[in-house]
UniProtKB/TrEMBL annotation:
Upper classification of the organism: Bacteria, Pseudomonadati, Pseudomonadota, Gammaproteobacteria, Oceanospirillales
SMART domains attached to this UniProt entry: Lactamase_B
Pfam families: Lactamase_B, RMMBL, RNase_J_b_CASP
Alphabetical list of Gene3D superfamilies matching this protein: Metallo-hydrolase/oxidoreductase (3.40.50.10710), Ribonuclease Z/Hydroxyacylglutathione hydrolase-like (3.60.15.10)
Keyword check for Hydrolase: yes
Molecular functions per Gene Ontology: exonuclease activity; metal ion binding; RNA binding
Annotated organism of origin: Larsenimonas rhizosphaerae
Keywords assigned: Exonuclease, Hydrolase, Metal-binding, Nuclease, RNA-binding, Zinc
Record's protein name: Ribonuclease J
Cited InterPro entries: Metallo-B-lactamas, RibonucZ/Hydroxyglut_hydro, RMMBL, RNase_J_2, RNase_J_b_CASP
Signal peptide: none
Domain Metallo-beta-lactamase per the UniProt entry, residue ranges: 28-208
Amino acid sequence: MPPSRIQVRPRLRSPLVFHPLGGCGEIGMNLSLYGYKDHWIAVDCGMMIRQDLPNTPLQSADVSHLAARQWVPRALFITHGHEDHIGAIAWVWPKWGCPIYATPLACALMRARMSEQGLRTDALHEISPGDTIESGPFSVRYLPVTHSIPESCSLLLTTPAGRVLHTGDWKLDPTPVIGKPVNPSTFKALAPVDMVIGDSTCADVQGHSRSEQDAAEALEALVRTCTGRVVVSCFSSNMARLKALGDVARHTGRRIGLLGRSMDRMVRIGLQLGYLDDFPSRIPTSDLGYLPPEEVLIIATGSQGEPRSALARMAQGSHRELDLTAGDSVIFSARAIPGNEEPIQRLKEGLKRQGAIIFDENNAPDLHASGHPSQEELETFYSWVAPRALLPVHGEPAHQQAHQNVARQYNIKTPLAPLNGNVIHIRGPHASLEEHLELTPELHFQDKGRRSRQRRPGLALALVVCQGHDGDWYRQGRVMWDIDAPLPLDEQELTDWLDELVPGLGPHSLKSLRRELFAHLQAYIHLHTGQQPALDVQLLSDQHQARHQ
């Protein structure tokens, strides 16, 4: 008899697991996990500000499920120092306690934030662009790119499952105000990479993004035409813009003042690291109101309409040190983050009531340069690294779709557009969605450094909701609740508030409704009680009732 033939199936290599917790399908709050077998690492740890909630709490990604799944990262890698990439460190990292790798500027910013919260900072490890860090099966190489903050890097992640390029935030700026342009040979040497997990923020914009140098020249040209006091509001973490404004002040004969603690911190750190060596001496805040207006240039926080910012207090006429007068100019040198349009508009109306002249992206679009790549930059970058596939991240679904459209023109596979909570398996250029976890972001209320050592009270709420023919949700029946410790809440007042809130939320699914309702309830309870209870929200949907209403 002939020998039997045994078929041996090829053994599939273990996948690289990509688990985005923030930064996919929305702006801000960037946090991604990568896992190979039982070893996990995290990339970035950002936050966003919920302007639509009372007291504008900070919002971070939901990491509560990681410990139960044994997905706790053993190292955290930071791409750059913007708040939407490092701002949640003080709240999220203590749950992990792992080493943190970042460039000197990002380390300095995190060290300041962690020290304010009473956290140890010995987990911070400074690295230089170009360095490679080993963590278990991961080899992580830092690749310098241009962005609106120095020392920004993409990360090349190498594992047995393939090579993934996590771009972080980047652009191709030929004339950056700080640092050097991107070196094409650095990225051409990587080609081809299996997968790019890439920045989509401006993928729907045709052409090439403007250079920071162009924005600096536009700012100087405008300031030269202003006759009164000039207030410029920008992101405090945009160090290139701060350096440019220092140059503008010198060239136009104005003296610099800083308003806002984060602005003062960034300038101080920039001086320490040598990025702002030529920055002019700052005028004490208490002296700004006594100088002739035509001699003053103020850099202030508040470009996104933050209610506690220096600019907001000026708009209300309640700033302790400075009153705006007719003829003063307020320049918005930052784009409006989606979702912040209404508070920004209210801020501008308040500034106009004080007599200020407003310059912004509507009447002076040259005052800002995006830190993200437009379509021409994506095309150039992909001609360098020759990716076999793309997973678009950062930005909203429309930006991710536009990014996919660009990639397809160059025969780059686009297997899916990730969403927060996805668990994606990657093998070389192949990616598949294994499951989706419904996540509830955490809110953190800034109570002036006050930390309660008492056990958090618990509050469980259950309510029945229906969806009418018009798609709006509404509540019916009683609100059932259970409190395990005293919590001064009025049940009728809470019920009335829910009845007003629920129809305006409008998500399509019950899970999405719960997530939105959870955030609003956290804010409501904190506002009315000053406490942050452990909150459990259960929604029961009466679909039969909804169909017959």
